[in-house]
Hints:
This protein is α/β, with parallel strands linked by helices. The chain has three domains: about 15-210, 3-Layer(aba) Sandwich (Aminopeptidase); about 215-245 and about 315-425, HAD superfamily/HAD-like (Rossmann fold, 3-Layer(aba) Sandwich), CATH 3.40.50.1000; about 245-310. Helices cover about 40% and strands about 15% of the residues. The protein contains 19 helices and 15 strands. Strands 1-2-3-4-5-6-8-7 form an eight-stranded mixed beta sheet, sandwiched between helices. A five-stranded parallel beta sheet has the order 13-12-9-14-15. Helix 9 runs antiparallel to helix 10 (about 285-295).
Amino acid sequence: MKPARDGFGAAERTGEAAGLAVHPLDAGRVPDFRTLHSRCGADGWYQCVAWWVPTWAGWGDRTAAENRELRDQLFARGEYDGYLLYEGRTPIGWMQVGPVGRLPKLWNSYRLDELSVTPSDLAISCATLLPEFRGRGYLHRFLDLVLATVETNARTRRIDRPLRVLAFPKVGEDLAADDVWTGTEQAFSARGFRCLREDPAHPVLSWTPDEDPIEVREGQLRAEHDGPRRHSVVVFDLGGVLVDNAGIEQFLAWTPRLSKEELWARWLSSPSVRAFECGNTSAPEFARALRAEFELEPTPREIEREIESWICGFYSGAEELLTALRPQVRLACLSNTNQLHWDRMLREIDLYALLDHRYLSFRSGLLKPDDDIFTHLTEQLSPWTEGASERILFLDDHPRNVDAARSHGIDARCTAGIDAVRAELANAGFQVAPPPRES
């Protein structure tokens, strides 16, 4: 039996779910690898060899037989580049993992030379499950087991370089299973991957072990969930809850016939606003449409600059509050927002580090208070709520959003401002950070 060339296949891992286990691919498991890919669809097309083919030119014309031949060549030279997930004795998933430097095509496609990436960093370059296991939380647990395995291997072998794992999910609306063969952004974000490069379709994510390893933190959260506390996930709206968006006052001055409540009502139902916050229009297009819809006097460029400035910053104490909560419960945001405002928020606080999940309208194409967004939210969080939507605590400052969430069984509370948020969390049984002292 030839050893795996990258040397990261020494350990295996068993999951808590009945019969789930991860094993490194080796010569003895090649038949299982073939069986899995023959059942994954596309007639065993072996999509993961894409990164071993030198260029994308002619990729669409390749045949399954050509890909199988290339995979056999890789096996012949000892390239066993990943892990198999088993339920009992049945292989149900595959994750391609190995040093990113051995895949020049991947390196060049994502311009990794522009980032603080080294060839020895590990890359998750393919992740797939049998169709019947998709959408049921298996990918999350698979990722847990693989990360725990590579971390254990690095620690056991005393590798003298910092361990870092990269991921390359494709994001967008209505993605087919074939589109997410590199893994889903939701699964990676849920496991603490942070963004190295923002991109609307092809972001680059990164994970490193921290002082609170995945297994320890997940164990703590499970212990909390199994105790008297009823909530397993806390979901925050951003504007008006964690973020001060008082900049709307200028927009009110432009629409003197509308009260603040009337403006918000029109804003939430505005076709141009919905198109922008669903990611369907650019900022200049949005400014022109908004000017016409609300009959505004300022120029489109003035409107665009004003809207960008609406985000005044995070409330004092918001970052400390999230930091205090993170060891106790999974954290998420659910926000009707746009790329302008999201980029502005990220410049102030690293929400990729503080939140386990980020549900953003301009990425998902879904808006509050529509039913679809809350259906999506409960489905995405089901691995941690066990399908019980009442285990989600949702804090939002708009009554319409709160009512819509409640209609889906979510424990939703109308809350505005950081002090009210802190009080609601304390009432729910969480230890919250004290308000910051006035200087």
